[in-house]
Design brief:
seven-stranded mixed sheet; elongated; 14 strands; binds S-adenosylmethionine
Length: 371
């Protein structure tokens, strides 16, 4: 079956997601602002969920149309082939958002879309009501500049939830963003990765998963695993294909340190759950004593920002320390993600390259030093 997909993503990650989907043989990949569209079959549905490192979730696009009134929204929704997806007993709640559109009341749009879907399915199945006791088909709508897109979520919990991080310290980095930082740093399976303020270890764990080519979704479940359209053998085949791509003979190693012993014990536990504990060495250490133990080093760090953990002055003091410890040398590269626009001033050097990314709602920059 040919399926259209939509991937909502963190702003700034669209290009990375488009690239990884192309590597998975997705067809017709288009990156837009905050989302990536592509097409494929039911194997692609499972593959994108299991393998994507940067996507927030994978949605199936049921259809799209323009609507300026509730009547247009109702008729447009009712015209779509919902029965292709939703069975007689399935659950189909509705949620979504509207931006810059005539139809701005989300709760009204939500109930109109629900009513129109019910009407369509009533006609198809010839039943007066739906018990909604079966598999979950979460309908998601987006209305942007009067264009309505109706989708169904295949993922369930966000794809950043890999399953290895049930506990987290005060300000963990989203797994998808940590993976994106490793990609920006061109991390390879023969590199040595350092995070001297590693907190719960997200950057190091995502780096190890990437170096070993371990699919991030291998050990979790997805909503569409209960769908008729994506039977168990498809998921099993895609899990087996992902396992076959794993690397075992790698030179990769990672070193993590932090001053907080509790964060370090969470990090160790997370690394163990992710199956990468043998590739990461953790140590309690202040960043002021940071010095790589290898000649070549890829250093990625997510220091505290003034507005979140410490006051601005203390954060700037840390950036000054980083500037002293992150010494330019051949084979060494440093990547620092922070929301502090004056970072370079405290750090003491202008970055060789910068990249804007969003950590949740917080606008950040990745400052890159490799010369
Ligand atoms: C924003 S958090 C990092 C979160 C991490 N990326 C994660 O995903 O969990 C900043 C970390 O810096 C640590 N930290 C603060 N001051 C430090 C210092 N002087 N030396 C080393 N670590 C420090 C904190 O304990 C905290 O874990």
């Amino acid at each position: 079956m040919q399926i259209e997909f939509c991937v909502p993503c963190l702003l700034g990650l669209e290009g990375l997601i488009a690239d990884e989907l192309r590597m998975m043989d997705a067809a017709n990949v288009r990156a837009e602002n905050g989302r990536v569209l592509f097409s494929g079959d039911e194997y692609m549905l499972a593959r994108a969920n299991i393998r994507s490192r940067y996507a927030e979730r994978i949605l199936v696009v049921v259809g799209s149309f323009e609507a300026h009134s509730f009547e247009e929204l109702f008729q447009g929704t009712k015209r779509l082939p919902w029965e292709k997806w939703i069975g007689k007993k399935d659950k189909f709640p509705v949620k979504g958002y509207s931006l810059n559109s005539d139809l701005f009341s989300v709760s009204d749009c939500q109930s109109i879309i629900k009513k129109a879907t019910v009407e369509r399915l009533k006609d198809t199945y010839g039943v007066p009501w739906f018990e909604e006791s079966g598999a979950l088909y979460q309908i998601q709508f987006s209305i942007m500049k009067n264009v309505v897109t109706l989708m169904i979520d295949t993922s369930g919990r966000g794809l950043h939830k890999r399953g290895y991080r049930p506990e987290a310290n005060a300000a963990p980095l989203k797994e998808t963003l940590a993976a994106a930082l490793c990609n920006l740093a061109h991390l390879r399976h023969y590199h040595t990765l350092y995070d001297p303020m590693c907190g719960s270890g997200t950057i190091l764990i995502e780096g190890a998963l990437m170096a070993l080519n371990i699919a991030p979704g291998l050990h979790r479940h997805f909503t569409a695993e209960r769908w008729l359209q994506a039977p168990a053998e498809i998921w099993q085949a895609e899990r087996e294909a992902a396992v076959a791509l794993q690397k075992t003979d790698v030179d990769f190693h990672a070193y993590g340190s932090d001053t907080d012993p509790e964060a370090l014990s969470i990090a160790r536990e997370n690394a163990r759950r992710a199956g990468v504990a043998d590739y990461i060495t953790f140590e309690q250490k202040d960043v002021k004593d940071f010095a790589p133990v290898t000649e070549k080093a890829t250093v990625i760090v997510n220091p505290p920002y003034g507005e979140r953990l410490l006051d601005v002055k203390a954060a700037q003091e840390i950036y000054r320390t980083l500037g002293k410890r992150f010494i330019p040398a051949k084979g060494r590269s440093y990547y620092i993600i922070t929301a502090d626009e004056d970072f370079e001033k405290s750090f003491g050097r202008k970055a060789d390259k910068r990249r804007k990314l969003y950590n949740g709602m917080i606008k950040c920059q990745v400052y890159m030093y490799f010369k």
